Amino acid sequence: MTKNELDEAPLAYEDSEFLASEDARPLRIISEYLDPLRRLRRQRVRDTIVFFGSARLSADGPLARFYADARELARLVTEWSMALPSGVRRFVVCSGGGGGIMEAANRGAREAGGRSIGLNISLPHEQRPNEYVTCELRFKFRYFFMRKLWFAHLARAMVVFPGGFGTLDELMEILTLAQTQKLGRKIPVILYGPAYWNEIINFQALVRHGMISAEDLQLFEFADDPAAALKRLKAAIEVEAEESTPSFAHSRSL
Length: 254
Known about the structure:
By secondary structure, this protein is an alpha/beta fold.
């Protein structure tokens, strides 16, 4: 090999072919942890309120009122968080960064004059970044499990609007962590739209068949109005003294 050929050999961390290979998968995974960590620290984001819900709900569709309610609740949450005396950003609205309920949440936060986070995912359809996410807080993930980690890592509460498989997956992930006591702190879960949720999930049947205990029904509560949802969030979240940022929801070792 000539000197010129040696000089042209790329460094491993600059070799795009290597970074896209199977061998480099662990590097891609750790990158999806470290890059958000660095950027969130730079933006002084301490914790979040996560909004889940369908990308298929629009501002003018048959279930438009959920879009409007998510937008209004995100606006109220952001106004509340911005009024808190803090040197860091508290209770920042966080969504999956796409359309529908995600767009509504980011839109409401912007209308309040605040910042919001979008944790986008690479998909062949449906998932496109919405325009309301704060540019510095716009993330794109390749791996679902790393995206879900960041949803849970900074969450102080979650509001789950009507949705499909993806929303159910995200909801059950958090409820399972809470049920099995793997969360280092309580993450209140509000199911928005009780008529929808009680139709698609028969919670009482799960208790009746012994699949969950009656106490597990206390892991979440319902709301059907933005002002009422905000009141429940405020009651459930303890606004403790500031710590370092980000403020992780550590997993418990039992």
